[in-house]
């Protein structure tokens, strides 16, 4: 195999000791057309946006109906009484961790574009693809762990998905988002595994790093919207 991590621009040759040639399509950027993987992921993220749009629509519609019913009956709003049990400080710290992970993820994607697979741990600006994704995986895992901790805290207080409409929507929205974060962590492990199994950094691997960053930024933006709606809109 080749001994350096470079995105090759010349036609593929059979490296010494390799079992087969690396196809040119995997080594080089397609001329005159976008990468099919990037286009496919962008289209898929558009469908994910519609999914979360439906979640937000259900949330606001249910909130409007229950608030109107409470006002007509002269009773406190379900949204006001139940949202008071959320730990805003803890959720804010968890949100900051996820936002920071978006920065480290972009550093990894930039490193992949610059053909830098590994770099210095002591200088984030010199991180390679591996360092950036490893830190992002750690931060993403901390976020999910924090969300699980919050769930168990609410369970101990007697709030579950079956308690009422408010908690049903809260657990559905945050639960689906948590699954998306886990999916992003798995995708980054996949990109890392490929970088460790090969000695030649290809254009295909650069594209994989970028589409994972697209997905991760999307997940972060969705959470910022969810955080604002769930924790502050009462």
From TrEMBL:
- The Enzyme Commission number assigned here is 7.1.1.9
Matching Gene3D superfamilies: Cytochrome c oxidase, subunit III, four-helix bundle (1.20.120.80)
Keyword terms: Cell membrane, Membrane, Translocase, Transmembrane, Transmembrane helix
Its record classes its membrane topology as:
Multi-pass membrane protein
Predominant cellular place of this UniProt entry's protein: membrane
Example GO CC term: the record gives: plasma membrane
What this protein catalyses is:
4 Fe(II)-[cytochrome c] + O2 + 8 H(+)(in) = 4 Fe(III)-[cytochrome c] + 2 H2O + 4 H(+)(out)
Q: Does the keyword Ribosomal protein apply?
A: no
Q: Where is the Heme-copper oxidase subunit III family profile domain?
A: 37-234
In this entry, which stretches build a coiled coil? none
Q: Which residues cross the membrane?
A: 36-61, 88-111, 132-149, 169-193, 214-233
Molecular function terms from GO: cytochrome-c oxidase activity
Q: Does the keyword Transmembrane apply?
A: yes
Q: Which GO terms describe its biological process?
A: aerobic electron transport chain
Q: Where in the cell is it found?
A: Cell membrane
User: Its family?
Assistant: Belongs to the cytochrome c oxidase subunit 3 family.
From the Swiss-Prot or TrEMBL record, give the protein name: cytochrome-c oxidase
Task: Give the organism the record lists.
Answer: Tessaracoccus aquimaris
